[in-house]
Design a protein that fits this description.
Layout lengths: L1 H34 L13 H34 L7 H12 L7
Amino acid sequence: EYKSYLRQDSKMFERQKEAFLKYREHVKDKQLVAASGEKIEYSCEVGSPKFYALCAFGGLLSCGLTHTAVVPLDLVKCRIQVDPDKYKSLGNGFKVSVKEGGAKSLTL
């Protein structure tokens, strides 16, 4: 069992090493382009309206989706802590909450 773990660990190490070497080559290529004086093109200029729009969209995706998934879990967890006789488990907590207040009961 321990030897199989070591084999898996060494395979993972080799994959990480390959990924690092590919990344290092990619960075080296960019440094060569920068050193040659060629202008590197970016998708948008820092501080431009497009930059801020992309940042807002990234924040919307990351935080919006995360909070949509986490808030109902947190509400049910808190209800279990307050009334453990009524909300017996996480699944039961969701069922009872939706039954009593509809899907709106899983939001603030």
